[in-house]
Design goal:
Organism: Aquimarina atlantica
Largest sheet: 4 strands, mixed
Bound molecules: zinc ion
Keywords: Signal
Protein name: Lysine-specific metallo-endopeptidase domain-containing protein
Strand content: 5-15%
Oligomer: single chain
């Protein structure tokens, strides 16, 4: 299984309910749930993501298509932090630029995970798509799903995850498309999307490694967002491995 499951202990942000209908071509319909762009770190990247050259770069690298991001997902309003597209760009900004000496081309894998996470994600995701929920599943059950050559992101990804977790999730899904499925069955505390151990170097290991580095050494961010990354890294370490790696993150 190649997926991230949404857990009930994920932070819920209580603010004004903004009712903006989102529909996809077929039968799916959803609305923008309550969220807090300050509390979840998104607003820090407002100006950084709203840049034509950067948007053009990500749009091309992730094979993004209008039909995957229109119908309320943000294609016509790419800087609107309340819509899924800009919330994804915020995560991509974090992923792309958080190393002090960030990689300036997607073929550069040198340095630590803080630096190579973006090139790795750029080269292994394939087509990046937005939907309300995974077709055939219960809405809200999944945050994302990797299909081998494309990745779908769903409402819980856009609105229940803070910006650091969204960035780590993009790397996680890219690792699946890079050839690593979860190999731990339901044998970890969260009982889904489990990897056996750290040495498997699966999606959970990549996610924790990146967020840990970001918590320690991330730049062009805030201490609050670094703390979000640390909390997510700890959570994944403690719930997503059959054998807890046991690091002091
Ligand atoms: Zn996964």
């Amino acid at each position: 299984m190649k997926n991230i499951q949404l857990y009930k202990n994920t932070v819920f942000y209580i603010l004004v309910l903004i009712m903006i209908p989102i529909t996809t071509q077929a039968q799916q319909t959803c609305t923008v749930p309550p969220h807090d762009n300050v509390a979840d770190g998104t607003s820090v990247y407002a100006s950084g993501l709203c840049n034509q050259a950067r948007v053009d770069h990500w749009w091309g690298v992730f094979d993004m298509r209008r039909q995957d991001w229109d119908n309320g997902f943000g294609y016509y309003d790419p800087c609107n932090l309340d819509l899924p597209l800009a919330r994804t760009f915020a995560a991509l900004y974090l992923l792309t630029y958080s190393a002090e000496d960030y990689a300036t081309n997607t073929g550069d894998y040198s340095g630590n995970a803080l630096r190579w996470a973006y090139p790795y994600t750029a080269n292994n995701t394939g087509r990046l798509q937005a939907l309300c929920y995974k077709p055939g599943s219960t809405p809200g059950q999944w945050a994302g799903w990797a299909y081998g050559s494309r990745v779908e992101l769903y409402i819980p990804y856009f609105y229940s995850f803070d910006v650091a977790t969204r960035a780590g999730t993009l790397l996680h899904e890219a690792r699946h498309n890079g050839g690593k499925s979860h190999n731990g069955g339901s044998g970890c505390p969260r009982a889904a999307s489990c990897d056996t151990n750290w040495d498997y170097q699966g999606s959970n290991m990549y996610e924790v490694l990146y967020l840990w580095w970001f918590a320690v050494d991330g730049t062009r961010t805030t201490s609050a967002i670094r703390n979000m990354a640390r909390n997510r890294a700890r959570s994944v370490q403690n719930t997503a491995f059959n054998t807890n790696p046991g690091f002091n993150i």
